[in-house]
Amino acid sequence: MHLPVILRVTGILLMLFSTMLAMPMLVAYIYSEDTYATFLSGFGITLITGAAFTLAGRGQRELRSGDGFLITVLFYLGLGLFGSIPLYLAEATDLSLTDAAFESLSALTTTGATVIAGLDELPKSLLFYRQLLQWFGGMGIIVLAVAILPMLGIGGMQLYRAESPGPVKDNKLTPRITETAKALWYLYLSITIVCTLCYWAAGMSLFDAICHSFSTVAIGGFSTHDASIGYFDNPAVEMVAIVFMVIAGINFGLHFIAINRRNPMLYFRDREVRAYLFVLSVVAVIVCWVLGRNPEASSAPIREGVFHAVSIATTTGFATTNFSLWPSVAPIILLFAAFAGGCAGSTAGGIKIIRVLLIYLQGAREIRRLIHPNGVFPVKLGRQKVPDRVIEAVWGFFSVYVIVFLTMVTAVMLLSDLDFITAFSAVGACLNNLGPGLGAVAENYSALDAVVKWGLIFAMLLGRLEIFTLLVLFTPAFWRR
Prior knowledge:
Low-confidence stretches: 151-155
């Protein structure tokens, strides 16, 4: 392990992040707000710390795969903590250090769980900053950084593999990782701009349109209003949100290929996308049916049912009403749908549809083997055979995911007086990067104890980095290399 080069890379990434604080400073200037000094302090502290790390590191050697894991975890944790500085210093938020870190890491990991109430009264610069954090966390600021690191003499492929979600991480859209990162970010930015224009055309103010496009494309779920999307009470706004949440939940690599080849039929040929759309449709139909049978729960069962099915199943977390008050089966179905999440390579959280699909196919194969013990039944996605190594990795991931989830639910209940529904949904919402939960965390997480909040922060990082990237650092073998 090359500690100097790890320090140097981490320092460079922190300095790059510090420049992001110039954008909310500009918003503060435009709206004549007194938060300018708050962001300037955050900029200075982050920049100086990053420069110190950079100067402390020496060497031009290439990063190894293990170094990429450590840098990815350090940077997400470091960025979340340094990103909390403006939230902690701002008088308008009046947050403790724990709450500021919770809010910052929730934004960066695109979880969308919040401890802030009274969003409508906050300065616009702080609202913009929360949304901006989610946007950068959506595609992964690491992928943005690897487009620049090669110019600094540091290879980035290990960082890309460590941060990129999904069961297969070696696929590159272009021959060079730098071009891959740039292609993904150009695509990400383009979709965000289109989403902004659509929100604006649907009736949002330009400020709200920009902010909500950030959290929609990032599948983060933060809003500039306590009532979330329900604040606008506008079917056109909700339709725009549905369309772009569905788009953001699809593999961005597939978006890139389909656009380059100008062939939208590639989406329908992709087995994972078909399964993803099927899950969204089934969940929407069930929720609408439940609401239709209980007219007292919703005055617009189809409108609210479809919106929340897409929002929760894609792990975005937008809401137009408090869905936790719906008949009990509907919130539980929505929460379980979030465990599946979106497609691999998207900004969605959860286990990912491709893993769920492979588990289903493997289960079907085992049933056929029971009927025909001597038969050979390869698992296929389309016409391609899936290697047994990938199947093993998927089952390993799923097993660890379930164990971690159940262990954390038990730990939260031991360390607090939370009921099972609240603990179960809080851990599930944070591990799946969903945000809103049930019970005491249906609206926000401010009432939780500090130790529980730090545990949920750990769950957010586990979910964003897909378990193994973080857990590998806790193995003695990693440090003995």
